Amino acid sequence: MKKLIPFVLLASLFACGGGGFKLDQTNPESVVNAVFESARTGDFAMLKDLCDPIGDGDGDTRDICNAANMDDEFKAEFTKFFKDGKVAGSAVVEGDRASVPILFGPGASEKETFKLIQRNGKWYLYSI
What are phi and psi of 12, to 5 degrees? Predict the structure, then answer.
């Protein structure tokens, strides 16, 4: 039994992320930062949890959430446009809706706004 303890500890580190990125949907900025982190790391699997669970939202955000299932061309474009991305100001929250200004594109040279919706205490992408 003593030989299992190190394995169990190691497994729990990986399950907790081992110090890596952990998805946080408690505020709008964290959700937007998850998009950028995914583009930087190539971890597209985390994006599936960012879409509204009842299916609301625009096609662009649904495409982002489905990036893991998209072709290599889509993934390359997604990476190109979001890897340098950053939040460019404070979120404006009005009830269960929020707007987060961002800079994205090569060199974070383009301005845009992510719109999010809150459901059951979690924030989700809604529109870009």
Answer: -70, -30
Q: Please identify which residue in the block is written with the tokens 């081992």.
A: 18
For residues 60 and 68, what is the distance between their CA atoms, to the nearest angstrom? 14
Q: What domains appear along the chain, each with residue ranges and CATH number?
A: 25-127 (3.10.450.50)
Task: Give the pLDDT confidence of 36-77 residue by residue, as tens digits.
Answer: 999 999 999 999 999 999 989 999 999 999 999 999 999 999
Coil, helix or strand at residue 81: helix
| Exposed/middle/buried for residue 7 (C-beta within 10 Å: 0-12, 13-18, 19+) | exposed
CA distance 29 to 9: 32
- The DSSP element (H or E) to which 97 belongs, if any, is strand 97-104
- Residue 115 CA to residue 126 CA, distance in Å, equals 5
How sure is the predictor about 22, in pLDDT bands with cuts at 50, 70 and 90?
Answer: confident
